[in-house]
Amino acid sequence: MWVQSKTCALCGEAIKVYEDSSVDHIIPVSRGGKDTESNVQITHVWCNNQKGDLLPWQDKIFRFLNKHFFKIRKGKINK
User: Fold this and answer.
1) Cα separation of 44 and 19, whole Å?
2) How far is CA 32 from the centre of its chain?
3) Per the CB 3.0–4.6 Å rule, which of 15, 31, 51, 54 could disulfide with 58?
4) CA–CA dist 79, 9 (Å, integer)
C-alpha cells in the first residue's frame, strides 16, 4: 500500500515517526470488514488502539465525548 498522507486518519494530527503509525481497518475485520486497500487507513498506534473494533460512526461519537467531556489526550487524562 502506498502511503500518500503523513497524517492520522482518525485525529488529523501529523504522524512524525514511522514507529508511531499503525494500519487501521475502517470497518473492523471482526465486524465483517474486508482486508482490502479501500478499507484501511494510516493512524497513530494510540488512536487505533482507542478505536478498537468500533465502526466509524461509533468512533466519531467516542472521540467527541473524549474531546469535550473526558479530556483524554494521547494516553493522558487532563483535569
Assistant:
1) 9
2) 18
3) 54
4) 26
- Residue range of the domain that includes 38: 18-77
Q: Return left, alpha or beta for 19; rule: phi > 0 is left, psi -120 to 50 is alpha, else beta.
A: alpha
Q: Is there a contact between 10 and 55 (Cβ–Cβ < 8 Å)?
A: no
Domain presence at residue 57? yes
Enter the pTM of the model.
Answer: 0.75
What band does 27 get if pLDDT is binned at 50, 70 and 90?
Answer: very high
Q: Is residue 24 part of a domain?
A: yes
User: What does the radius of gyration of the chain's CA atoms come to, in whole angstroms?
Assistant: 13
Domain count, the chain: 1
